[in-house]
Amino acid sequence: MDDIVRQALAKWPNVPSCTGWLMLDRRGNWRMRDEVAQASGSAGTPIRHEALLGFINRNYEADERGQWFFQNGPQRVYVELAYTPWVVRLSANEDGALALRDQGGCTFEPAAVFVDEDGGILFADRSEPARIAVLHDHDLDIFSDHAALAGDDSLSGDFHWNAQVTLPLQSVRRAEVAARFGFVASPAAQV
């Protein structure tokens, strides 16, 4: 958390939190949701300002109930999650070495790989508790280049992470992801 945010919290400790105004979409874009977007259920307007994106990413955390928020100075802005609290991008360099980075640009080291019923790919990392991230859909080709799927329709198989590690593909139901990994997708209903 930024020092300026800590100072604001100390100066104004009782600022009410807000919900519904910020969303992390399925592709890792932060979106501002005004009253019209909230009322219509739309995702809102993508935030493009680099300094603001950096500020959001540095001050993004979860509370004790698994509700993710952006600490905007003294105000806690709870985040609507389109799927998971993290979205990762997968890349391969010219030597074939793979890298995963989350929406804030930080390295994400996978410990497990999951496939949901819609073919969405999710990675859990090695932290405690494990962070769960959905793979950006533009990176499915890279993923499939490094996965060996079973010959049946079960979406089972293995993912080969940098030649040293083979991670089995595990099935997970999308509706169970939040409870299994301890986060709240829509804190507006919880706060």
UniProtKB/TrEMBL annotation:
Pfam families: DUF2944. It comes from the Bacteria. InterPro entries: DUF2944. This is DUF2946 family protein. It comes from Paraburkholderia susongensis. The lineage of its organism: Bacteria, Pseudomonadati, Pseudomonadota, Betaproteobacteria, Burkholderiales.
